[in-house]
């Protein structure tokens, strides 16, 4: 990125993400005859996850956003080493934190991720971060494998973040293993890997989340009968597609996810109005491809329970996507639940709704997988399971009383 004078900041994100041994950061002079000047330094000098590089006007300080599995995200500053430096610079300093100082998490309850490279379709490989269950107050039975929650990130051309994520620690502190998948098409692994999603959205991403779950089952790290998947937005589409077109998962939760690609192409906001051309194909010229990959067009192939969580004011993936999917799944006699949150848009913002969404998803899996939530958990009415004539929960003004304390284990 230009510093405003004559230099670029070079960041080797893919190498750092894959090797986990070192990171490469350098300055590239733009003047005649200038050579590439870089410094390679140890893991402890920078947080595990960083981006948003912004040099100071004089080029002597680099500001960036960083985080680590046990450290919340924040704004960092780093003194740029002089030209020709070969030794590690001083450790980067956090100057602002994104997480409330009132939120204190005991390190003993924090699950730390392990980067996995696993085989997937076509003889290729995909990546993901595996978080084992972590709660020092409880242990599972010796012969029991934990339930697994596979997470599909949004974008879809985005990536996972190796940072302290309460939304992941919520699950690992409650007895779940979590696999946060960087399916083919994710950024951070090179251009070739990222471009695997071109024309293949709804194919390679689904193959990879399924392959990741099966990989962990094969290693004895997950219970094959208790495999769940969730994702928001584009990740919700991958979730619905995996549940519809594959037989790997036994339950799932789509948060403001895409169910009908053709409807998305016609309804979404202007900024992303042609985004699907490169991911699926030009519309309407290739409408047959859109229909072939739309979960809502193939609910006859669906056989496992689905929870749908949606913001009532979402302009990117309108609520009618979740509503149409709910009605289609309901008509198939499959257990399902739709919760619509008033005042929420594309991604939940209110703390009470974020908490309620997590508690509702846990309650849903508890019913489906057959375990008990300590303290009773959140009340959840599931159509085709509790009452065949039930209607979806109405729009919510706020969240319900739940169990948001990350240090409490709800599996009992």
From TrEMBL:
GO MF annotation list? serine-type peptidase activity
Record-linked Pfam families: Peptidase_S9
For the region Disordered, give the residue spans. 385-404
Q: List, alphabetically, the Gene3D superfamilies matched.
A: alpha/beta hydrolase
| Residue ranges of every copy of the Peptidase S9 prolyl oligopeptidase catalytic domain listed in the record | 167-370
Where is the organism placed in the taxonomic lineage, from the top?
Eukaryota, Sar, Alveolata, Dinophyceae, Peridiniales
Q: Which InterPro entries match?
A: AB_hydrolase_fold, Peptidase_S9_cat, Xaa-Pro_dipeptidyl-ppase/CocE
Protein name, UniProt field? Peptidase S9 prolyl oligopeptidase catalytic domain-containing protein
The biological processes this protein is annotated with in GO are: proteolysis
